[in-house]
Amino acid sequence: MSKKQRLELMWIGKGEKDNPRLEPRILIEDPEKSYGDKNTENILIHGDNLLALKALEQDYAGKVKCIYIDPPYNAKNANPHYEDNVEHSEWLCLIKPRLVILRKLLSDDGSIWISIDDDESHYLKVLCDEIFGRNNFVANVIWEKKYSPQNDAKWLSDSHDHILVYAKNKETWRPNLLPRTEEMDKRYKNPDNDPRGNWKPADFSVKTYNEVCDYEIVLPSGRRVQPPTSRCWVTSKERYLELVADNRIWFGKDGNNIPSLKKFLSEVQQGSVSKTIWFRTEVGDNQDAKKETKAFNSDDVFATPKPERLVERILTLGSNKNDIVLDSFLGSGTTAAVAHKMGRKWIGVELGEHCNTHCVPRLQKVIDGTDQGGISKAVDWKSGGGFRYYTLAPSLLKKDSNDRWVISEEYNAEQLAAAMAKQEGFKYYPDETVYWKQGYSTETDFIYTTTQFLTVDIIDKIHEEMKPEESLLITCKAFQDACVKRHSNITVKKIPHVLLGRCEFGKDDYSLNIINVPVVDFEDEEGEDC
């Protein structure tokens, strides 16, 4: 097989159902539900997550540093927040287009972390190899999610989930180090009161034999020693003497021990490389997560959250302060809450009603500083910040009584202008003084959308105001025929005809069958997490 060839996961419906022609919707802020700092860049979106990702694509492509998603596991049991039991091929058709857009949103130095369990993890791995590139696979992290066996399990009691990790570009992406723990630092002592501080002894011999490093050492006690069998010392004799002079060799309190090298705490790497097995004692488990969510909604406990310490571990490794973090399956809001406390900018998307019953109140408490659970004390979280609450605009086009596509009456002039700018690939940014400069694609290329009947007089007046190097796209409902080729640097397009065939209008639901949240038995530790 040549290097250009690659294996692809095939399933029924691939190529037909997994590549929807998505309408690039605009986002509409609901000021009554936005909270805190009005200038915040944090975004909470209530709506279909595939349409929401498409809405974000234009402004955020290549800008998101770390993505964490916890999609429905398709675990063949009715999950209380998602209909978690769809046909395997249907699940793949639903998850693929989301991953495709998520990859576009990732920055070149970004990474994506995906929680999943055994039911779909191996299929998802092959699918991610196809989308992100097998060469960009980083690791399969194992998270210990339960502390006790499930006694009614028919076969084996599952005690872990998977977290698949991919980099946008593995050649350049590097994870951050984990902070050093107190336990790690306790290994360093200072028995000789060295002014350089605490240290710990390290082996002064190595396996790789080098004749230059094979010599006799006379200990302070007078005893003579050689390197252990089949080994040699770490350095040459000349370098060894320099280390002795610098008090970097330890011979024990009585000077009679085999020499060891003093490794000072102040000189070691200020962090540790993450392992791929994450124990519940380090990052929490299901029960921890449920206790955290109960603190902000005790009447309607979210059944399948993730513990804050788990998400903290991911964001520590995959992002830094002020980086953008995205979760398009926000659930109870854990990722947004943790990102907020850690000083990251965040985007959260959630379709279910728990966006309002769980995410909003949880994030409000984080901002107010009344949420002191989870990682709050560990990161010394006080209060501050905010989020802006958005919903997806309705479909731009709809069918009238004669089965013809027309512009939805729900759009006002400003929203229509913003929608047409997005449809045509322009950044919607109305000029404060020039009315026809509603958006731009370059410094000299603009778009103008109007609901007026476009006449030659109107287009001539606009042309008089334009600079020679400027170009303009005008979209409108109707115009005089003479407007079309009136000026070489002005293009006129008719709405809705220019849009027909581009995408799938009138469809609002690409969801994974999300349903309302029921009351959950808090004591029930078992069950799938998604």
From TrEMBL:
GO terms for biological process: methylation. Residues 64-354 form the DNA methylase N-4/N-6 domain. PROSITE patterns: N6_MTASE. Keywords: Methyltransferase, S-adenosyl-L-methionine, Transferase. Its EC number is 2.1.1.72. GO terms for molecular function: DNA binding; N-methyltransferase activity; site-specific DNA-methyltransferase (adenine-specific) activity. It comes from the Bacteria. It catalyses: a 2'-deoxyadenosine in DNA + S-adenosyl-L-methionine = an N(6)-methyl-2'-deoxyadenosine in DNA + S-adenosyl-L-homocysteine + H(+). Pfam families: N6_N4_Mtase. This is site-specific DNA-methyltransferase (adenine-specific). It comes from Geovibrio thiophilus.
